[in-house]
């Protein structure tokens, strides 16, 4: 599960899939972890690897009301229960190989595909990269995570996705009326 | 011992039943085996291989993986292993087959590497290795067949990957070393294998053959993507193919020429399988193009234009630009290195030239495969080699001259780009060249013909025109600048000739053309007659080539072994040239950008330099990309123009920069006369600025650009540039707030600066930004800027323009969307005084109209926000200020209500407000305090709270209503009435549009407070007059809700007031009167339109009404309406009144007498004549009306002159035996008394008994009457009996009789008698009369 800050969308999906017993990791592709701040010009910026707990404490200290209201604190709390800290996709190439990579934004998809492209293909193991466009807000993230779970289960159900990815994807698109973008890369 | 254990492991693996335990055993087995020697391995291998038929697929997969690993470590075992793997390829489980292919990729590389390296050192190969290789090749063929034949996608994907790796292995890596690693082959992984390690004479491998094979494989891959085949493969295949090809293209740029045409020609839509997947392939294609674009290899350069085109078509032009820019930067720095080295006498040319040769090699080879006619080309280039080598001399000097020529070209290019844009044939030629070049190698022939057929002058023109399309770039390093300086000084020494100088850039752009062109020239020198300059140029090219150093021996070897006689000189030279050119391009970019910026400041020049300015701003925008690496440079760039403009205004150079500056201005004026000296100096000052300064400079620059638009507005053609300005704003760093400047610009003169257009562009750009960026941060950012921008503009429009101006509503109607703040603004506009009181003066009624018309516009044009706008309008329609309210109501009722889409909402709202009046009535005080606040929420709150009250505390309500009633008109203050009006006006307005709504008012009427009722009554006349007696209204009238009588009456009154009611209306009212409402009042308004007899019929009821009402009716009936004559004459009225029988009609006598009195009060109507007439008629009635005598008495009181007439009446009464009506008899006597002495004669007409009775009753009459009767003339006329009664002739008998009668009659004398009494009296009277 990859989104840009490894906070909302990817973590929502991570959390859900983890509950469903999937072996799942989540990453962000951005340069930093950005969270909305008191005003537009003052976002809260953290490095990848900063524990969610730390952010939680930090923001709670700054303005508990604001961050509670905009759902940041609950989100961070949820995140810290899933894993320690946000991870950057590009910096964690050693993880994996994954079977399927989910991205929630085309920009992220591009970055993942390119990153995979630029790695040395040693294992020659195929990896399916799927982009499911999800808006970066709490409600959409929850919907997106459920869709991702659906899709994962469908892929899981096939004997080898390489043979049937087209069918799975088109079936999903028809069922949920969401556009999917996928690419195949190698480890 | 180890053997034993291994054997047991194999056995247990074989025997284990479930997958995990089997795998566990096998994993252990693998561990053991890999650590053991080859002996043990070869011993157990067959047994392991046996396992590949295991029924469990995970086991088979693991076996495949295991033997793959074993194989890569022990290549000698391959002959045994590979057959197994081959059989596994056909395994039923795709995962197993995939594993087998994965192993194959590894094994193939290992084997090839080993074979190659062993062959380097010995002429013979191991037998085992050789057989391994053979097996490997067989394996390869199998996989190829999988890759290129239809089958399971899972297998094919990996097979394709295998093909890709084979191609890569078989072709030389331009970035790798061509020398085999000095380490021993066992550590082969250390360095990536490169086929160029191979030398001629390898026992098995031949570079040429391998290349051919690779090329064939590539052909097969490409075929998959060509038209008929591409339809039959799945999308995932397409994606993988595209990815593989882009990898190959990137790693082996020599294949660009083959791969890109196919990719570019691949239209993803033609490969639609189910219509849904295009995006995937599309995307892959896009990424492939981008990565190809980023490739820095010179061989990729010719394709850039087409790639950019293709990307632009895919609407990712921005990305392409960015990629291109990155590439250019890299190229720039690389080239700089090259230039340096060439000047410093070529110390390390090996790598470079090697690259170049590889490119040549690749291209030529592919050419051989693809196009036969390239042989000709080869011949030509062969010639070229000779030419080139003959002219070789003094490398360093030549190269510098080459560069110089490039230097000289740049100003020319500049000139052309600045000058007239359409040079007619030249443009066409450029386009033709472009088209030909785009076709790749196929068009080489025709391109050659084209070049040879045009004149050199024209060719030069074409080159110049072409310069314009070279993307702007800028130099990267300071070292470069130094070298430039050197070159600059060199340049001055070298005699320049334009012909030669113009060629290089063109040639550099089209390396292939270079080859052809040169060939052409050298082949037919005398024909073309292009002087020595051509040759000179050729020499330059060749020299620069030679300057790169001697041919690397490795390259030569490679060529030899390939066996293709190629002139490696041609293309490298072109490439070298290219590098020089692209360097020069930088300069052009710079030069162009600077004058451009300058010109934005110099107004007079601006219009001419359209192209330049756009380039300049593009540059600026690049600069604002905030790329750390180019920060310093950008600021420098920005600094220059801004400084220069400042200075040039003063014209007094002071700082160190002024040199450069003055040169710039000279550049402008003298179109590059001295620019070859200028260039280096321009770049010289490098000043590090602080962040603040940079910000300031950026801001200044932006302000300047914005400023320049003022001139544009005058000059026209601004629509082209609007988008640019908006785009700039988006690209600008946020902290600098470029929007502020833009806003000010727009505000300063909205009309003349085409503010509307500009605002829209800016807003759309921002909107796009907000929608596109999906991360929280930037989208919210753009949104807020958008909001602010729109709000400010809207506010300014509101404040600075007259209210009649339509700009605001137009703007709001056309912007992408309306944020909340704008709604608020509109709300304030439409309902002034809500937010801040002091704005009130500012917002006059016209403003309200303006706001309302804007809202109306929005409702019509923007359905999505219709609700919000409607709310604003409705809110305004219940505004406390009547002026505002009426305006809004007019809008809502006349314009909006007819729209079916919003009608219901409007109705609901009006209804709600109407109901709120009822519910809110008892909370009058509250509504008063909150009267000014008309926000919907508050209203609904109010409603709610009042609901609570009504349900929760009935007592409180009662108290409230009590108090309300107790305090009369004072509490129904004007404010509460106006409050009621505020809420109801809208509803009333709607009623005029939809009459059926009217009923609701009737329904609620009963439960409303007095104030509300009053408000309703105020409204009704206007309303009803507008409606008229429509069917709906008639329906309401015919069935009025209970409690609405007053209202109904008013309605009817209004309806009949000043107009003839329709027959339907009259009919309805009568029916209503007859059936439901017995109240006579509803008939009053139509009385004058009723037939006379009906009026008579209902007259008693009219009399029964309260006096004042009766009076009104009286007037009404007597005067009639303006359209109809009087219903009744006064006489008729009086007669009608007298016709009322209190008992029969159930009307108190008092009412009747009151009615009479009323009549008598109006003497000018009920005149003497009228009364006489009435009395005349009445006296004829039988029986006489009860009030007859009363009326007679009143008549005398009112008109004493009637006495004579009355006497006549009295005497008629006497003849009618008035004494038989006791009540009247009393009145008669009264009258007689009143009218004495005239009445004496009448009295004397009475029969003696009645006379006696009369005299007894009214003693006062006796004496005068006797006196009257004594008169002799009268006395004589009187009968004796009368005289007796009078006492003139005494008769005791009669007197006693009379006394008894009198006693008997006496009781009824007192006041009003009952029926019974009357009868008794009548009987007695009869007796007495009969007795007498």
UniProtKB/TrEMBL annotation, chain A:
Subcellular location per the Swiss-Prot or TrEMBL entry: Nucleus
Pfam families reported for this sequence: Ssu72
Keywords in alphabetical order: Hydrolase, mRNA processing, Nucleus, Protein phosphatase
Top-level division of the source organism's lineage: Eukaryota
InterPro entries in alphabetical order: RNA_pol_II_suA
EC nos: 3.1.3.16
Family: Belongs to the SSU72 phosphatase family.
Its job: Protein phosphatase that catalyzes the dephosphorylation of the C-terminal domain of RNA polymerase II. Plays a role in RNA processing and termination.
Name of the molecule in the record: RNA polymerase II subunit A C-terminal domain phosphatase SSU72
UniProtKB/TrEMBL annotation, chain B:
Domain Symplekin C-terminal: 1079-1257
Ranges for domain Symplekin/Pta1 N-terminal: 94-313
Biased composition (Low complexity): 1292-1310
Biased composition (Basic and acidic residues): 936-950, 1315-1332
Signal peptide start and end residues: none
Gene Ontology biological process terms from the UniProt entry: regulatory ncRNA-mediated post-transcriptional gene silencing; RNA processing
UniProt region (Disordered), positions on chain: 385-423, 471-498, 617-636, 925-955, 1292-1332
Protein name per the record: Symplekin
